[in-house]
């Protein structure tokens, strides 16, 4: 898992939401046609056809064969196996923090360690941080909540077993980038330590004691001014990332963490991609229910995929869940590709400003979709609450979930 999934419960399965995996480095092309007698799409592998027929009706395939094809293709190439979802590596091959057209020359392990010695804090972190609770465990290491003995604050510490990391240079790249990314609405990197005898890397990040926005979304009812507040704070972070050429690509309530003071911070940079100017990426990552149509249909995409996801996250805050949550991932992918903008059940109950905000986020035509900076000046955000107004909801969610307040 990258930085953000640090707070997933140890041993849990992360719920039923499926995630799309690392981008593939290859392309396979099929000549697909429809059999006039049977109605089947021909030219696809037999397992694809069986899967498609089991979850997408024949009528739906007839109405939108392209959407059915894109959905099953996306699903088969990119969906992660269940056992790999619990705890992703700190850095994965879908983290490409480099120019999209630049060929990466992989550093040797010796070169990586030489550079880590330069950028890491040379002190022993165990003299400053006292680990108090293990909150995650996987092949790449263990995540702890720790006390900072210097200022009596809490932090999140991930201990990474370097000998098990196949792409050590990507870890180096991410640390370099995160050291330069400090913003009040991002879960910020604090320090890194290389413990050479143990061959461990300790990465220290901010700890958000209010938990994920998901808890508030699912356990409480949010008012429009509170929704506007979360959208504004999230957009501050997205605007900052976009200004630096970074697409987050996995904006959702799970990746927005809260403080007990109501502070709102975006996390999970393992899915971030770096782009230069108007270059667009064609890799497929993220969580299907929040994905923009252009990602599912494998069109080239840019920064505005994050804007679509913010619109879907706003629907989460309105209705308690994203569209299609109870559909299978494959069927959700089909519905996104076929329908574009989802229906909103409580549309008529929303204020005109919120309706217009959603309209600006959920434009299928990318050129018509707003930018982060445009949304920050939207009237819906002008009357948002202060972050402290989120505190009662955070406490209520914790009480329902029986967590410490």
UniProtKB/TrEMBL annotation:
Keyword Lipid biosynthesis in record: no
One Gene Ontology MF term: ATP binding
Gene3D superfamilies: CRIB domain, Phosphorylase Kinase, domain 1, Transferase(Phosphotransferase) domain 1
Residues in Protein kinase domain copies: 129-381
Keyword list, A-Z: ATP-binding, Cytoplasm, Kinase, Nucleotide-binding, Serine/threonine-protein kinase, Transferase
GO cellular component assignments: cytoplasm; ruffle
Keyword Transferase found: yes
Residues reported to bind ATP: 158
Biological process, per Gene Ontology: actin filament organization; border follicle cell migration; cell projection organization; myoblast fusion; positive regulation of synapse assembly
This protein's name: non-specific serine/threonine protein kinase
Domain CRIB: 20-33
UniProt-listed PANTHER family: NON-SPECIFIC SERINE_THREONINE PROTEIN KINASE, SERINE/THREONINE-PROTEIN KINASE SAMKA-RELATED-RELATED
InterPro entries reported for this sequence: CRIB_dom, CRIB_dom_sf, Kinase-like_dom_sf, PAK3-like, PAK_BD, Prot_kinase_dom, Protein_kinase_ATP_BS, Ser/Thr_kinase_AS
Coiled-coil segments: none
EC number(s) on file: 2.7.11.1
UniProt-annotated location(s): Cytoplasm
